């Protein structure tokens, strides 16, 4: 691995490495992906029953749809955690250059509760962020309607609010870029991991921001290319249902259950490749930052030298 990786290197190396390890990844991720797919089937069917019951009013189908959806939710959550821990173990194995996947997974798996904690905390913070800024813009809109003079005064204030909204979202999301990689690769406390990820990401703010944007664009392009046939099938079905002619609106359409199941199955297969790409790119970026600032490559070389000396002794 090159020590000083550029942003493009981090992304391209992760794509190529995951493509090289595709059989290995499928072997490790197939079972939890299959369990997740079973949960998705329950979620899809529960959602269809629930939406159908809304047109007829609350009744037996209403409760049945909620119950089936809850079963799917209970199945999907453990499968998602299982998948995430396997992917983080894969990242640890490559970034820390450990001997085998099993030892990496043994060190990563006990941290699953931290992954759950950080995921819940992030979504709660995101909900709070949405509520605060929605409320703020609502108040600003009400004030702007009082009189034309106040509306003119509110224009620069609204522009500043938009800028602060974007900046606060960036500050909220940037540390998450390295959070789970730091959690996988560093054996420290739960709050130390958070502080470490904030320090690493914000210390090189513009580089991290550029990495996130580049990775997001690359990931979306890969996903679009790999699901293009599926998107065409959705388009044909919506066209047949009359959405684009204005005969119906999207909320009135329920895609055939078979098509939804095929879509869910194909997405699960695609994610078995794309999610490791996402995590591994962040892992390479983490390695590059630590190499630049802390000489991580030197510590690896020293460790290998000591291992050779120990074996030869």
Account of the 3D structure:
The protein is an all-alpha fold and 313 residues long. It has one domain. The protein has helices at residues 7-20, 22-56, 60-95, 101-108, 112-144, 148-185, 190-203, 205-226, 228-241, 257-294, 296-312. Helix 1 (7-20) crosses helix 10 (257-294), helix 5 (112-144) packs antiparallel against helix 6 (148-185) and helix 6 packs across helix 7 (190-203). It is globular, with a radius of gyration of 24 Å. The two termini are 28 Å apart. The mean pLDDT is 83.
Distance between the ends: 28 Å
- Per the principal axes of the C-alpha atoms, what is the gross shape? globular
Mean pLDDT: 83
Query: What series of H and E elements makes up the topology?
Result: HHHHHHHHHHH
Poorly predicted segments? none
Beta-strand fraction estimate: under 5%
Q: Report the total helices.
A: 11
**Main sheet summary:** none
**What is the strand tally?**
0
């Amino acid at each position: 691995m090159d020590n000083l990786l550029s942003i493009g290197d981090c992304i391209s190396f992760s794509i190529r490495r995951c493509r090289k390890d595709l059989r290995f990844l499928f072997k490790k991720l197939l079972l939890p992906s299959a369990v997740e797919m079973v949960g998705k089937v329950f979620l899809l069917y529960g959602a269809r029953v629930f939406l159908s019951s809304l047109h007829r009013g609350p009744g037996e189908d209403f409760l049945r749809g909620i119950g089936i959806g809850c079963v799917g939710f209970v199945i999907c959550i453990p499968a998602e955690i299982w998948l995430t821990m396997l992917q983080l173990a894969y990242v640890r194995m490559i970034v820390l250059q450990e001997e085998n996947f099993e030892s990496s997974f043994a060190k990563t798996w006990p941290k699953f509760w931290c992954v759950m904690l950080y995921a819940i905390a992030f979504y709660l913070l995101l909900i709070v962020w949405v509520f605060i800024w929605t409320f703020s813009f609502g108040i600003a809109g009400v004030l702007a309607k009082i009189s034309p003079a106040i509306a003119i005064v509110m224009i620069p204030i609204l522009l500043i609010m938009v800028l602060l909204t974007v900046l606060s979202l960036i500050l909220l999301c940037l540390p998450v870029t390295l959070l789970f990689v730091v959690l996988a690769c560093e054996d420290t406390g739960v709050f130390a991991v958070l502080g470490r990820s904030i320090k690493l990401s914000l210390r090189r703010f513009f580089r991290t921001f550029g990495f996130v944007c580049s990775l997001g664009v690359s990931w979306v392009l890969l996903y679009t290319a790999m699901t293009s046939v599926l998107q065409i099938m959705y388009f044909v079905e919506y066209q047949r249902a009359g959405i684009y002619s204005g005969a119906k609106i999207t909320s009135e359409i329920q895609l055939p259950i078979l098509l939804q199941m095929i879509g869910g199955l194909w997405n699960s297969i695609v994610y078995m490749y794309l999610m490791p790409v996402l995590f591994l790119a962040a892992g390479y970026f983490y390695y590059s930052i630590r190499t630049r600032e802390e000489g991580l490559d030197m510590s690896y070389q020293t460790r290998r030298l000591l291992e050779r000396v120990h074996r030869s002794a």
